[in-house]
Specification:
Blueprint: H1 22-35, E1 46-50, H2 60-63, E2 68-73, H3 77-80, E3 88-93, E4 100-107, E5 112-118, E6 130-136, H4 143-153, H5 156-178, H6 185-198, H7 202-218, H8 220-228, H9 231-241, H10 246-263, H11 269-273, H12 278-288, H13 304-315, H14 319-326, H15 331-364, H16 399-409
Antiparallel strand pairs: 1-3, 2-3, 4-5, 5-6
Helix pairs in contact: 6-7, 7-8, 7-10, 9-10, 10-13, 12-13, 13-16, 15-16
Length: 414
């Protein structure tokens, strides 16, 4: 009689260990959720499962869990050469993230993968999106080929590009479905021109100017249509009839911006210059708003003074126009006077800024380092906003630089 040692483990005999099927595991989880407190969910953001064994005949509601979004990629017999096994599934917790979508899926004899992009509610600003990839590599796969496919698929550039394209496509479809006939740019231009030429109510005129500014900024056809309706003369009349109140300054800002959009387009710039007393009107704007110099923050845009200077510089780039302006009485003296006042104010602001920086540096215990001068670059070309080009110059927002551009176009010695 042989006695067995109780400490000695018996060797298990039978079939090898296998993963629990996803359907059976899902049923157990559903039963567990029903027995727990209602609404109690997992604290994790996502859960991945491989070798699910699912196929197209099994609907999503069979394997779905309450409070979790289901993303699955079943094995394809045509692509993998196998009819059983395989398959991937990713669960995303709706309490942590509701903005998730499938951006990549791949199936071959060597590898199966599924990539889902999501943006959790609590995500640092440095990260725009989180990519979750579930991978299954069969035991008989070529690992080198599998790693090559995995690297190409989950590379950051391709995933982000697909994610942004899908988001953009969905947004365009949503906007196209909600668009109305009166919201089209051509119809908005027609109604805005009608309001501008017929009505005298201030709110109607301001709304018309806003629509015309957007139309002339985005469409060359709308620029030509505005010029064909002789609306440029009406815009200059509006500018001359305004005072320095807040609503009138808003009207002047949109009016000058419309003229600026027209002046950037080579087919409509002459229509702006040929309006009677157009240059005198712009010079009066410079004289009136010279102490209200523009904001230097590019996102906020320039003020009336800066926009008017930029408009004058665009109009006077042509030599013929510049010679005609030089012959006008007292034009050069007015520009020199405006430049001196602007340069004096700019110098005072710069001295205050340097003094403030030195005081802060002495309080904080650091040293003030003056900015390093940069080499001047060749001046880029002006172009309308609908022209997408890298060397295109943006609107000038520095008042001193704007008045200097006017002086340079007229060759004025300051």
């Amino acid at each position: 009689m042989v006695l067995e040692d109780p400490k000695q483990k018996k060797k298990k005999v039978g079939r090898s260990w296998r993963t629990k099927p996803l359907i059976a595991d899902t049923k157990e989880r559903k039963d567990r959720q029903a027995s727990q407190t209602p609404g109690l969910q997992s604290q994790s953001c996502s859960t991945c499962r491989t070798a699910t064994g699912l196929n197209s005949s099994i609907p999503d509601n069979v394997v779905s869990l309450e409070g979790l979004a289901t993303f699955r990629a079943d094995r394809s017999s045509d692509l993998s050469g196998k009819t059983r096994g395989g398959g991937l599934c990713i669960y995303i917790n709706n309490n942590r993230c509701k903005n998730a979508m499938t951006v990549a899926s791949y199936c071959s004899p060597d590898i199966e993968l599924l990539t889902v992009n999501c943006r959790p509610f609590y995500l640092p600003r440095e990260f725009t999106v989180v990519s979750i990839t579930a991978v299954y590599v069969p035991p008989s796969a070529n690992t080198k080929e599998a790693m090559s496919v995995l690297y190409r698929t989950i590379s950051t550039s391709s995933i982000l590009r697909k994610y942004l394209l899908v988001k953009l496509r969905l947004r365009l479809r949503k906007i196209s479905a909600e668009v109305r006939e009166e919201d089209k740019l051509c119809n908005k231009t027609s109604s805005a021109l009608e309001y501008l030429l017929r009505y005298k109510h201030f709110s109607f005129i301001l709304e018309a100017l806003k629509n015309l500014e957007a139309a002339t900024r985005l469409s060359p056809e709308c620029c030509e249509r505005l010029v064909g309706s002789d609306a440029t003369g009406v815009i200059f009349t509006l500018i001359r009839s305004c005072n320095r109140s807040g609503p009138c300054m808003e009207v002047i800002t949109f009016s000058v911006q419309i003229l600026l959009n027209l002046s950037k387009y080579h087919l409509t710039i002459e229509a702006v210059y040929s309006v009677e007393n157009s240059l005198e009107t712009l010079l009066d704007l410079l004289q009136k708003y010279r102490e209200k110099a523009g904001d230097k923050v590019a996102e906020k845009g320039g003020s009336i003074f800066t926009k008017a200077c930029f408009l004058l510089a665009l109009l006077l780039q042509d030599e013929r126009r510049a010679q005609e302006v030089v012959k006008l009485p007292k034009v050069l003296d007015r520009i020199r006077s405006i430049y001196r006042l602007t340069a004096r104010k700019h110098k005072m602001d710069e001295e205050r800024s340097i003094t403030r920086q030195r005081i802060n540096a002495s309080i904080n215990g650091s040293f003030f380092v003056p900015p390093t001068p940069r080499k001047s670059k060749p001046p880029p070309k002006f172009a309308p906003d609908w022209v997408l080009r890298k060397d295109k110059l943006k609107d000038v927002v520095d008042p001193l630089r704007a008045i200097q551009m006017v002086a340079e176009t007229l060759a004025i010695v300051l």
